[in-house]
């Protein structure tokens, strides 16, 4: 059995357990999806006044104060989703897709509620529109990825993304030295700026290889470039943005719930 089959078997088993044996969660949460992906996450600090225009009334940017992305107020998440299943273990919209999620860590001033606002998603799968957060738009998305190494050496990796729509492109090219990924489990809330009282809960098991972190003084990036010409994003990426972190996730396994 190859690795892909093992991951598929694991995800289906987890999904089945949550669907059929939803004992602890049944009273307060509903499983809506499970997925497996590889990811590239870029953390930026951009001009806050410009970022505020993307947030609903009463919400403010809330950058993390700890960790490798400390000070980041805008995340670009490039996601190559290898498997996407509904709560019955059936493929959603063909079962796979690639997308770019633009996410703002934010806080609601009146309630203190905090989480991540998914302000825009560029997806290559038309069947995923308008998306759970009602912020998805269609784009042409390409990814090229390669790894090199020998023996027990972590080696190097190259990751290149192109996200293109009618108004422009987001292009990222990255080459970095790999290290052992840090495995962790997390729980996060993701909100819709269109309907701020709607959110989903993501429980994720992933491996994270932090190739660059300004706060932690880590930098294994050998070359990096980013080009942003999509019209609605140009004000954020006008040359004043600061790259805070680069994180490659060779695996991310999630269960997604709604309250």
Helix content: under 10%
Backbone CA Rg: 18 Å
Instruction: Name the CATH class.
Output: Mainly Beta
In total, how many domains does the architecture comprise? Answer: 1
Compressed to H and E, one letter per element, the order equals HEHEEEEEEEEEEEEE
Largest sheet: 7 strands, mixed, barrel
Mean pLDDT: 91
- The poorly predicted ranges are 10-26
- For the terminal residues, how far apart are their CA atoms? 36 Å
Which fold does the CATH topology refer to? Acetoacetate decarboxylase-like
Shape: globular
What does this molecule look like?
There is one protein chain. The protein has 259 residues and is mostly beta strands. The protein has one domain: Acetoacetate decarboxylase-like, CATH 2.40.400. The protein is built from two helices and 14 strands, in the order H-E-H-E-E-E-E-E-E-E-E-E-E-E-E-E. It has helices at 3-20, 48-52, and strands at residues 30-45, 59-61, 74-86, 97-108, 114-123, 136-138, 140-148, 156-165, 168-177, 182-191, 199-213, 218-219, 221-228, 242-258. The chain has a seven-stranded mixed barrel with strand order 1-3-4-5-10-11-14. The radius of gyration is 18 Å and the shape is globular. The chain starts with a helix and ends with a strand.
